[in-house]
Write a structure and sequence with these properties.
- Chains A, B: Keywords: DNA-binding, Repressor, Transcription, Transcription regulation.
- The structure is a homodimer.
- Chain A is an all-alpha fold.
- Chain A has three domains: 56 residues, Homeodomain-like (Arc Repressor Mutant, subunit A); 112 residues, Orthogonal Bundle (Tetracycline Repressor, domain 2); 36 residues, no CATH class.
- Chain A has nine helices and no strands.
- The first copy, chain A, is flat and about 55 Å long.
- The N terminus of chain A is likely disordered.
- The interface between A and B is large, with 61 and 61 residues.
- Chain A binds a DNA duplex through loops.
DNA sequence: ATACGCTAACGTACTTTGTACGAAGGTGCC
DNA sequence: GGCACCTTCGTACAAAGTACGTTAGCGTAT
């Protein structure tokens, strides 16, 4: 028997790189990147801190792997099908994934070399654009534009002190106080007449910009 | 004389909150956020670590202040003038500022309460849009769209392992190796036929997307 | 002038974190 | 049984944030 299960109760499953990374993902999702330490990860896995290092070189390797795992969760477009709806679907998926893993957006700037899921992702998006008739130059333009929008939107969502449509008013109050009397009148007007209205959800702003961008790209494609 | 200059050489200027923040800015610009520690900051200022804490509550307060300093460097649009050129100018300024302080984009997700420069900035942009005839709803749409694009573009620039048009080829080689034989064909084709061409600068992609977005907003404004 | 109290800088030390180094326990093969 | 290995862990150190109390210099009231 190679099963590490002995008498009197289930012995914990063997540690693997997979389990280490899944544990790291879980910890980060629960408490953010700041709560992800080797020690907290070890506790999550039910082992001692230094055991992690047998399966992973260092913490940076964990973070790089997390980025690639997150990329892997994003729906890929299907090259050859209608490029607009495919890219639209991919963009929405990316936003959902980045909203699910709020901490991930901060790791993108690390500049580490991209993982396989990241490369696969890039390759598929490029394929979708090229097959739709975009030139190399227009593909680069379109890709930079779409990803800037998606990442930037995710970044702004991550910067919000709340999530979803829940109680914008409560969190806004201390900020409103900072605005003081009469300074920032336009900001206050927008906040009270729009952002703080019940039911407002910043996430809903996503579709407007995305469709505007896709419209613009379609127009550019027609001209090219 | 309240001058802290004594005999035999210039005594260092008194520490102030201003000098602490400028020093932090300087350290971060030189070596990135990672190199900004209380100890490195103290060394930069020529004092001992704990001296910093007389002028600043903690490190987070320093980081928050840095964000606001960076916001303060962005050109404000002028409400009432042609909104397109004003917002265009502001967007370019924002990109330049965020490229000058690559580390700043990572601080935006911290979700801390915005500083005065940040609020002033928001207020002025909103004013520009409202005076141009945008409804409250369209103002929110436009603002979210433009800032997502600007921040996302800056984020992607910060993620690049190099800066400017310098030697994309050199850095690309190890990445190209990762791509392996035959996987990611479209990505390789784009890289060799476009990104790695001499003179290519990712930063040049900015104008395309920005103009596309402004075009789209102008069209939306006409319909509204 | 002397004492008092405030300001600004600092010294010491504790905590958290990443991780180097090597030992310990188990397992399969000869 | 002995040995090589794979995996886990114990110990310990360095870097970093910062709590706490101390000290030197200065202005002001007595």
């Amino acid at each position: 028997m190679s099963e590490p299960v002995s008498e009197g109760g289930q012995r914990r499953a063997r540690l693997t790189r997979e389990r280490v990374l899944q544990g790291a993902l879980s910890v980060a999702d629960s408490g953010g990147l700041g709560s992800l330490t080797i020690r907290s990860l070890a506790k999550e896995l039910g082992v001692k801190p230094m055991s992690v290092y047998y399966h992973v070189a260092n913490k940076d390797e964990i973070l790089d792997a997390l980025v690639d795992i997150v990329f892997g969760e994003i729906d890929l477009p299907v090259p050859g099908r209608d490029w607009r709806s495919e890219l639209r679907r991919r963009a929405h998926s990316a936003r959902q994934v980045l909203a699910r893993h709020r901490w991930a957006i901060g790791l993108l700037e690390s500049g580490s070399s991209p993982g396989p899921a990241n490369l696969r992702h890039h390759d598929t998006v490029i394929a979708t654009l090229r097959e739709a008739g975009f030139s190399a130059e227009m593909t680069a333009h379109a890709y930079a534009l779409i990803d800037s929008y998606v990442y930037g939107f995710a970044l702004q969502e991550a910067a919000l002190p709340f999530e979803g449509p829940e109680s914008v008013g409560e969190v806004a109050e201390p900020i409103m106080e900072l605005m003081g009397a009469g300074e920032y009148p336009h900001l206050v007007e927008m906040a009270t007449s729009y952002y703080m209205q019940p039911g407002y959800d910043f996430g809903d702003e996503f579709v407007f910009g995305l469709d505007l961008i896709l419209d613009g790209l379609e127009r550019s494609l027609g001209l090219g």
